[in-house]
Amino acid sequence: MTPGGHSAPPHVAAGLSTRALAALIDTVVSVAAGLLLAVPAIAIVIVGGTWTRRPDGTRVLESVPPAGLVLLALAVAALVAVPAWNRGIRQGRTGQSLGKQRLGVFLLDRRTGEPLGAGRGLMRWLSSIVLAVPCLLTYLWAVVDSHARTWHDLLAGSWVVRR
């Protein structure tokens, strides 16, 4: 039931290939955000850094311009903040990350048919990282699950659907 007491509308689970493509789009967005800051940072370090040559002929970076370090720190922060916002907060509030929006699919609460909310969205995103990094079994599980749900979907009580 939805908060207003109505039954959640029927939904069709999004297929695994659609979910994977949405995840790829979201990854490209996140990496692009980091690269927008990292590329100029690296250029500043290479061009503005102080380099010395060792007796064996190798070059060693002796000092780095502060602007390069700041941009590198911002690039790393973007690589965390953008997916946290897109896959956690935005998707939790609206039901769609940028990738899911592009493909017309939604992340919804299994019971209510409503978006999860920012807190549960962030929890789902973080659990996807924890479950994916040590083992890809969470994604293999989606292959055998009748609704293509991953373990982080099961933990969050969510599923990805087409409306």
Write out key terms for the chains shown.
163 residues, alpha+beta, three-stranded antiparallel sheet, 5 strands, elongated, disordered N terminus
Question: What is the element layout, followed by pairings?
Answer:
Blueprint lengths: L11 E2 L2 H33 L1 E4 L5 E5 L2 H29 L3 H6 L1 E5 L8 H15 L4 H8 L6 H6 L1 E5 L1
Antiparallel strand pairs: 1-5, 2-3, 4-5
Helix pairs in contact: 1-2, 2-4
Describe what this molecule looks like in 3D.
It is a single chain. Helix 1 runs antiparallel to helix 2 and helix 2 packs across helix 4. The chain has one domain. With 163 residues, the protein is an alpha+beta fold. The longest helix is centred in the first third of the chain and has 33 residues. It has a three-stranded antiparallel β-sheet with strand order 1-5-4. This is RDD domain-containing protein. Its main location: membrane. Keywords: Cell membrane, Membrane, Transmembrane, Transmembrane helix. One of its GO terms (cellular component) is plasma membrane.
Could you write a compact summary of the structure shown?
The protein has about 160 residues and is an alpha+beta fold. It is built from 6 helices and 5 strands, in the order βαββααβαααβ. The strands form 2 sheets. The protein has a 3-stranded antiparallel sheet.
